[in-house]
Regulator of SigK (Thermomicrobium roseum), 261 residues
Amino acid sequence: MDGHAVTEHEQELVEYALGELDPETAARVARHLEGCERCRAELLRIEEALGWLGTAVPQVDPSPALRARVLATAAFEGRQRWRLAWARGLLAAAAVLLVFALLLAVTRADRQADELAARQANIAAVLAAADWSTAMQGERADMPAQVGRVYLDREGRTGLLVLAELPLPDEGRVYQVWLIRSDGGRDSAGVFLPDLEGRALLVIHARDPWTTYQGMGITVEPGPEGSAQPTGERIAGCTWDWEAWATHDRIARPRLDAGHG
């Protein structure tokens, strides 16, 4: 059967629709119908015509062979339509997901840029307000004598901790910053991990004014949230004496009302 010359085989299609073909010929026609859209359309036209004729004559039950072939053809057409609809739906869903992914990526990039800008502004503000700083001393054999510096505003509650050359803690561990009160108590100032080069830049928020504290320490604690109180090895720290610093400040700064020359 040639899909480009349907009319030459119209009689065969009629006989197929009526169930009059022998099984071998019917099977051959069925195989051809699977790949020939024009023949399927012609068969559909014939079946519709036969259906219209059926309304003009007394109703009779179709032969089992005809019923089976009609159902098979309908099922084949249904599968084809379902596959096409499924493919179109899949493409539409993929397009929607692609657009959503692009929008999400742009949104995340914008949010990350905003967060970075806000963090840089916060760091700049803390540095601008700082009026005191001291070195953070390394306290482990495999660390340098100084691992960073802390910058504080004596009258405020924020500070900046700049660290370098820190080894990465063991897996499942984090570094935790502790503020040491004058009475020896410890307040947690957060946990962190250095980057691959051992650097970290942290904005520290104290619970109370800095004059309440006399030092700072860093310990190794269980991750990811750290501990309520220090439990691990201390790797770095510093101490300060506000009274001595204030006295030195008064001596070091010249009096504006002093006469000179």
